[in-house]
Structures are given as structure tokens and as C-alpha cells.
Amino acid sequence: MTTASCASCGGALGAADLQCPACGAGTGAVIGDPAPVAAAAPATASALSDESSLTRFGQVAKTVALLAFLLPWVTISCAGQQIASISGARLATGIVSIRNPMTGAVERHAGSQNWFLLLAALAIVLALLVSFVRSGKAGALGGLILSAAAAALAAYAILVDIPHQLLAGIHQQQNGGADAGSGGDFGASMANSIEHAIKVDPAIGFWITLLALAAAIVLDWRLQSRSVDGG
After folding, report:
1. Three-class SS of residue 103?
2. Measured at the alpha carbon of residue 28, what is the angle toward residues 22 and 31, in degrees to the nearest 5?
3. Angle at 81 between CA 77 and CA 86, to 5 degrees
4. Over the stretch 14-44, which tens digit does the pLDDT of each residue have?
5. How far is CA 141 from CA 27, 108, 137, 148, in A?
6. Is the dihedral of CA 139, 143, 144, 149 positive or negative?
7. What is the 3-state secondary structure (H, E, C) of 160-217?
8. Does the predicted TM-score (pTM) go above 0.70?
9. What is the DSSP letter of 84?
10. Quick check: 190 and 181 in contact, CB under 8 A?
């Protein structure tokens, strides 16, 4: 029960008192316990501001992840000498340029699209669209799932699929050249030596994309958790 007091003398007032029993002052102005709803409006505004900040930072992280496709995603070296640096966009489209370690000439290769990278880029674009179209729990959960899927697809493409494809293509090309030029076991041995000397490593663009997607996942998770806690 709220305890009221006289505004004039501070004496205790009963619920039915029209005048203060101590000083006789009217009870129109009383001092009671502070209303708990007074802080509700500032708290609500602060929560909305926090959600807006999380959404905005998440959008920035996803944009960085997408733009990083323009940076080198893999570097290819032969016997310690770099022969190619390929962006994520070129890997996704299948159009790459590689310097032949035997002749030194830069050769343009037009292969098939890498669907893992294409789907990763599409997932990032969809995650961005969701963050602009949907707000709160639904938007955060969709962005989280899409960002996680994009990270998984990109990691599989760069760490497993693309190195296998590039090495297989180089092996096939060198074997064809060896068969046409020298033939026999010597040509096959030379092709195998070149293949073993070639190394495919992830480059800066790939790591930037993974870090940006990880940040987007954390931000969407926090936004989704905040939305759940807020009802």
C-alpha cells in the first residue's frame, strides 16, 4: 500500500483524510511513493536505439562480406613462386588467369561457375535484404541463418572444392602438354612434379568475408536474443 504524507508538514495521512490531522492543511497535494511507470518510456526508447544499432552494424558487416568478393580469395604458387591471385568474383564465375609455370605465359581459363561461391554470395545478398525488409526477431533469425550458410559455403568452396578443381585442371593440362611434347614416363613424371609443387592458399578476401560474416552472425544473434527477451 502506498503511504501518503502531508505536503505541508510531512505528517502521515490516512486514506480518507481530507485534512492533515497534524496541521490542518488540505490533502490535495500529497507526497507518495514514486510511480514505477515513469522510467518506462526512456527504457523503451533505449531498447529501440540498441536494436537499431545492432541492425545497422549487421548491415555494414554483410556489405563488407559481399564487397570482399572483389579481393583475392586464393593465391596459387609453384615451387614458392606465385603464379596467380584470383578474386572471389572470378572464382565464382569460373574466369581465371594463371601463369603457366613452364612457359611463363599468362593463360586465361574459362571454366564452369563455382556454385558454392555463387550460393554464398546470394545468401549474403538475401541476408542484407532481410535486414532492410524485416525487423526484430524474424529479421535477425533470417539474417543469422543466411550468414551462417554463406560462411559454410564459402569455407567449403575455398578450402575443399576450388583447390581440388584447380589442381585437377592443372594436372590435366600438364599431362596433355607432356603427352604431346615428350610423351612416355618422362612427360608424366614432369607433370606430376609440377602438380606436387603447386600450392593453393586462401587469400585476404576470403578471410575478410569470413570475419565479416562471423560479426554479422554475432550481431544478428544478439538482436534475436534481445527481441525474444523483449517479448
Report:
1. coil
2. 70
3. 40
4. 766 767 777 777 766 444 444 455 444 555 5
5. 55, 42, 6, 11
6. positive
7. HHHHHHHHHHHHHHHHHHHHHHCCHHHHHHHHHHHHHHEEEEECHHHHHHHHHHHHHH
8. no
9. E
10. no
